[in-house]
Amino acid sequence: MRRFLQIGPTVVYLGAFMLLPLLLMAYVSFLERGLNGGVRWGEHTVEAYVSFLFERNLDDSLALNTDYLQIFLRSFWLSISTTAFALLIGFPTALYIALQPPKKRNLLIFLVTIPFWTNLLVRTYAWILLLRNGGLIDGSLHGLGLTDGPLNVLYTPLAIAIGLTYSFLPFMVLPIYTSLEKLDFRLVEAAFDLGADRWRALTRVVIPLSMPGIVAGSILVFVPCLGAYVTPELLGGGKALMIGNLIQSQFGAARNWPFGAALAFALLAFVLIAMMAYLLVNRRTSEAR
């Protein structure tokens, strides 16, 4: 009874603010779309899920439509690219911080968290000023004679990837730093004593022992990127829709609540399948060892 009282508030909170909204969204995805938005309560259909891959012709026959699938694939590709960029930048940063004295280490961690002090919307608008034609980056490169014309980076998938990498980079640095901070660097010294160079010590000792942090950071970056809305909306300019923008448009301008709910659950299903696949592969790898 005492244990139930300890976990009871958490269970009630998660059930009320997480499970019930998910169940409500699942129910909405199987309802008929209202004529002026909303839904028709009590009228059930799977049309929202059919619309993900098909569209209806005038004779009510189904025709394959991959537009929404392409948006999903674009979102996954941008999320994977962002995770890779964040890892390439975040791992050396975390390793550098972990090798510093404690006082300097705390200061560097403090600097990593500074971007969280500013609203994401403000930071994204700052990137618009940096990436636009004639902006700071374009003007500097042109002034140095490195470019002849405008970069035309803004409102492209590259601009979205840059913005997402900047936004979620701390979520990659901090978990990796946590793993590296616990690393016994005498193992690295032992690797050097056994004849390993820096590259082998990094790939055979440091990276494997910091893998829990790398995996945690990758998940913390990849999953939020899939549902990102502000950064793709502002830096993409509506030219490169991602899943978050598509879902918002269905609940907003299109007023198609069932389809928006179905898209949200399709995204949730893809993420859960990917996570389950990773856990299965990780378990088999651990058993093989």
From TrEMBL:
Coiled-coil portions: none
Bilayer-crossing regions: 12-31, 76-99, 106-128, 154-177, 205-230, 259-281
Keywords: Cell membrane, Membrane, Transmembrane, Transmembrane helix, Transport
Gene3D superfamilies: MetI-like
PROSITE patterns on file: ABC_TM1
Cellular component terms per the entry's GO annotation: plasma membrane
Residues covered by the ABC transmembrane type-1 domain: 72-280
Biological processes, Gene Ontology terms: transmembrane transport
Topology of this chain in the membrane: Multi-pass membrane protein
CDD domains tied to this protein: TM_PBP2 (cd06261)
Similarity comment text for this entry: Belongs to the binding-protein-dependent transport system permease family. CysTW subfamily.
Protein name: ABC transporter permease
Native source organism of the sequence: Kaustia mangrovi
Native organism taxonomy: Bacteria, Pseudomonadati, Pseudomonadota, Alphaproteobacteria, Hyphomicrobiales
